From TrEMBL:
UniProt binding sites for Mg(2+) 3: D34, D79, D218
Stretches assigned to the PurM-like N-terminal domain: 32-142
Domain PurM-like C-terminal: 156-305
Residues noted as binding Mg(2+) 4 in the record, renumbered to the chain: D34, S49, D79
Residues that, per the record, bind substrate: H58, D268, Y323
GO molecular function, one term: thiamine-phosphate kinase activity
Gene from which this protein is expressed: thiL
Name assigned to this protein: Thiamine-monophosphate kinase
Length: 331
């Protein structure tokens, strides 16, 4: 007998691994009622973000369900890291074309692994029949007035990134079975697949940016596209030096032109991009010593937009900046 909605939720999502992935003291009321209740700690503000994932748009048409479950939550939690928040809870809105129990089992196990890794509990959601669509809303908390936004960058600040760039796009190439460079070892392929399916939100680094960084976000659509958001919101110009962009050993297997294009425009890296007042520069060595691969990749100036130096001086960006929703084939 096919499962109805409530039996599906009970079997695969109302589990200890998801409802109590971490301390649940902030959950006053979880799954089972019309809505959930959260109790914030004193002096905290609520941080809320929603992501939708569509097959063929945000992940390949062919995929491992467990990896998809992990990725769905990871990319949403990355927005909490960008706001310097501590995760509290999440909801899941899942549209399924059919009730496929092996798929649901694997998906929920991947989702639970991410919930454990990021210390966040499932508190509700919805399921319905339709084309595969995964909607995740994450909730976190941050000390009042300390959330990091896109609008605080000032001239003289350093432009920093929290880790290697280009791995997400290279990982997608591996996942999709594209022709790979001969120099890419099996270990490199495994690393890149992990970077695509299991990105690690920089929660701890984000929390250390509270009251220190001036602006920030996570890189999802590509370095250039996301840097443009900071420049526009802050009313400044960002100068990026291509020679300073950090890349992984695995990415170096590709030709320099492809490597640079993925680092600039590839997206799906889910590392933090932030601006740092020059007086705070000494913190970079401290963060690196603590295991956060922070690099300075440029600087903030008066003006507007993003300028890139690829060895010929700083110039406005030509062509695509990164992924954009709702772009038509004729754009």
């Amino acid at each position: 007998m096919a499962l109805d909605e409530f039996a599906l939720i009970g079997r695969y999502f109302r589990t200890a691994q998801l409802e109590r992935a971490t301390d649940a003291s902030a959950t006053a009321l979880g799954i089972g009622d019309d809505a959930a209740l959260l109790q914030l700690a004193a002096g905290q503000q609520l941080v809320v973000s929603t992501d939708s994932l569509l097959a063929g748009v945000h992940f390949p048409e062919r995929y491992p369900p467990a990896e998809l479950g992990y990725r769905a939550l990871a990319v949403a939690v990355s927005d909490l890291a960008a706001m310097t928040a501590t995760p509290l809870a999440f909801t899941l809105a899942l549209s399924l074309p059919t009730v496929d129990e092996p798929w649901l089992q694997a998906f929920s196990l991947g989702l639970a692994a991410a919930a454990r890794d990021f210390a966040i509990n499932l508190i509700g959601g919805d399921t319905t029949r339709g084309p595969l669509n995964i909607g995740v809303t994450v909730l976190g908390q941050v000390p009042a007035g300390q959330a990091l936004t896109r609008s605080g960058a000032r001239g003289g600040d350093l432009l920093c990134v929290g880790g290697p760039l280009g791995d997400g796009a290279a990982g997608l190439a591996v996942v999709q079975g594209e022709s790979l460079p001969a120099g890419l070892a099996i270990a490199g392929q495994d690393y890149l697949q992990q970077r695509f399916w299991r990105p690690q939100p920089q929660l701890l680094l984000g929390q250390q940016l509270r009251g220190v960084a001036s602006a920030g976000l996570d890189i999802s659509d590509g370095l250039l596209a996301d840097a443009e958001h900071i420049a526009e919101s802050s009313g400044v110009a960002l100068h990026i030096n291509a020679a300073q962009l950090p890349g992984s050993e695995a990415l170096s297997a590709w030709a320099p032109r492809q490597k640079l294009d993925w680092m600039l425009r590839g997206g799906d890296d889910y590392v933090l991009l932030f601006t740092l007042p020059a007086r705070e520069k000494a913190r970079i060595a401290q963060w690196r010593a603590a295991g956060h691969a922070v690099s300075v990749i440029g600087s903030v100036h008066a003006g507007s937009g993003v300028l890139l130096d690829v060895g010929k001086g700083y110039a406005p960006i030509a062509g695509e900046r990164g992924y954009q929703h709702f772009r038509s084939a004729n754009d």
